[in-house]
Every structure is written in C-alpha cells, then in structure tokens.
Amino acid sequence: MELNTITRRCRRLLGLMLLGTSIHSLGAPATPANTLTLQDALTRTLTHNPALYQYRFHKAALLASKQNDALSPALAVELNVENIAGTGAKQGVQEAETTLALSSMIELGGKQQARLTYADARIRHAQYQHQATSLDVLAQLTTHYIESLATQANRELAQRSLDFTHSLLDTMSVRAQRGATPEAEVLRAKAAVARADMQLTALQRKFERQKIQLARYWGETQTPFQRLDGSLFEFGASEPFAELYQRAQRSPALQVFASEKRLQEAQLSLAHADQRSDLTWRLGVKHFAATDDAALTAGVSMPLFANQRGSTQVKAAQAKRDAIDYAETDQRLRLHAQLFNAYSLRQQGIDNATKMAEVVIPALEQALELTQTAYDNGRYQYQDLMAAREELLAARQARIDAATTALVSQALIEQLTGAPFTQ
C-alpha cells in the first residue's frame, strides 16, 4: 500500500465521513475566508503534520535497506607477501612469495531471500503503522475541533447572556429612577453584567488557546481563521454495537498486530536461515621470487558449530512471535471495552441533547417569558427573574455539553473501527 493510498484512505475514513455525518455538511455553501472547516483542517494535517510526514523518510530508509539486503556478498581482494626482510637467505625480497587472491562468500540456507522477505515485512508493517497513526492524529484533531466548536457555541451563548443582562440593567435603571425598583437590585444587575462579561472574556481566551492547538496539527503557529464551521447538533443514524465491533476487527489498530506477526515470522525464518553455515572461498595466484614461478592457490572455509550459535536467535524470534498472539488478544479486549464505552456515551449524549432540545429548553423558555411578564407587572422579584434566566442558560449549556460528548465519542468510534459510523 503506497503512501498516497494510505493518505486517501485516512481522509476518506475519518475525514469526509465525519464531515458528512456529524458536524459539517458537504453540500453547504462556501464558507468565508476567515472561517475554518473541518475538511480544511484535515487536509492540512494530512499534508503537513510532522508526525505523519516523517513516515516518508522512514519508508525511504526501509527501501534503501531492502536494496542493501538484495546485494550478493561482496568480493574481497587480498595481497599477501611472505619471506621478506628476514635473515640469512631470507634477507631482502629474493625469497619473497607474493599471493594475489580474490575471496567471497557463498550464502547457504536461502539467506538472501529470507532477508528480502523480512525487508518486505518491515515495509508493510511501517505502512500499517502509518495508517493507524494517521487515523489517531485525525481523530485527535477532530476531537479538538469539536471541543473548540463547543467553546464557540458557549461563547455565543455567553454573548446572549451578556446582552440580556445589559438590557435588564437598562430597564432596572429606568425603573429605579421612577422609584419602582430598589437601588440594591440595580447593583445586583450591575454585578450580573460584570460576571457575564467575565464569562464571555474567559470563553474568548479559551477559544484562542484552542485555535493554537488546532493550528499545531498542520505545523503552524498563526491562526488567521476567526470562526469554525459546523453544527454540534447533527448526529445521524445509529448502528448496532455488534456491527461496530465486527467492523473494528478489521481496524488498522488490529491490522498492525497482524503485520507485526508476519514481521516476526519473517524474522524467525531469517534466524533459521542464519543457522546454516556459509562457505568462504578464496582463489589467487602465488608468485615465487626465487624461481620467478607462479601457481594458483585455492581454499574453502566454513565455521564450525554455527547451528548451536544461531539457536539463541531462533529462540528469541520464536518468543517474540508467540508474544504477539497474547498482545493481540489483550488489544481486542481493550478495543471491545473502549468501543462499548464510546458507544454508550454517544447514545447517552444524543438522548440528553435531544431531551434538552425537545422538552427542557422549551419549558424553561416559556417559564422565563412568564417570569419576565410577572416581573414587569410587579408580581415577581429580581431574584426570580435571574433564577429563571440562569436555569435556561444552564440547560442550553448542558445541551452543548451533551452534544459534544456524543460527537467526541463518535469520533473515537470511527477511529477504532476505521470506518464511518453512519452511512
């Protein structure tokens, strides 16, 4: 699987599917230049994220290593001079014997093919790791995007609250001038304005921090965008947990273990091949200076007890291969628990957000209207009006929190399954 194929798959599995089913509409009109969409963020991350970009160099290194493994044993040239600078008849070079020889190794046991098989397994394993890491990074980005979108929604809610308290302060100031409202209530209204302004400022600063966190995914420190595009309250249809878990069995996270097992099996085959002793041959020409004669020389050597020396490598490779099965079993159990937790939280978030929107918020809005009317008629006090407003504000915030939980859980589900949650 090539890098471009992995990139396209990651974008399709965790990018566009979230855009189409959760917090963005692909059919929506073009967004303003100062607005960031999730699709833009995902595309920039896939292109420029340092954690993903480094896999290109890792792959290049593995390919270069494979080319080296494909090479045959190198030839060596040897020049050997004997019987020189001695004593008596061996003084000088009159009795010198000079040998010029070539030597190399004949690999036995299919070592070269075993090395190439192991190199291919390393390359495939790195590709699966790249795919799994890409999904992890995109899921983290999506989670940060959703949380930032929730902050943006809370900021807009805080702005509405500030506008309300300003309006109420103006009304109470006019009533206080007519003697219809105690001065203490005007002071309370001023304090409410200050608290609402502090809350809005805090959310604005939080949003600025979150913008920086988003920009770092594509390697930037500047945030020219001012808004995020998307809706927190579009969840799509649900799927049975059994289908999701079945899909998760084919997820990149588990494919990494399958690739790791093939890698260790290739390493075990390489260790078995290394147990076979290699032949070292030597062929040369020897010159005798005393008689000016020449003769061929030849030799073959093989190390002894190589099988015993290689047995430890075989045992180590076998142990690593066997350990993968247990690691994969443990990962499947973790995956099941994590997937079910995310599935349950998503359902809970959707239920809470829906009930808030359909029952709680309409009831509190009507209650606030009735309280406002009663307050204007002098039948309710300032505390009653503020309590009704705070209840409505808390319900709207709870709806945002529930929707955020649902969408973050859905992003995790799609990360674990490597596929869209809703079609």
In words, what does this structure look like?
The protein has one domain: Outer membrane efflux proteins (OEP) (Up-down Bundle), CATH 1.20.1600. The chain has 9 helices and 6 strands. About 5% of the residues have low confidence.
Give keywords.
alpha+beta; Outer membrane efflux proteins (OEP); four-stranded antiparallel β-sheet; two-stranded parallel sheet; 6 strands; 69% helix; elongated
In short:
This protein has 423 residues and is an alpha+beta fold. The chain contains 9 helices and 6 strands, in the order αβααββααβααββαα.
- The strand line-up of the biggest sheet is 2-3-5-6
CATH uppermost class: Mainly Alpha
Report the biggest beta sheet as strand number plus sense, adding barrel if it closes.
4 strands, antiparallel
Distance between the amino and carboxyl termini? 25 Å
Strand content: 5-15%
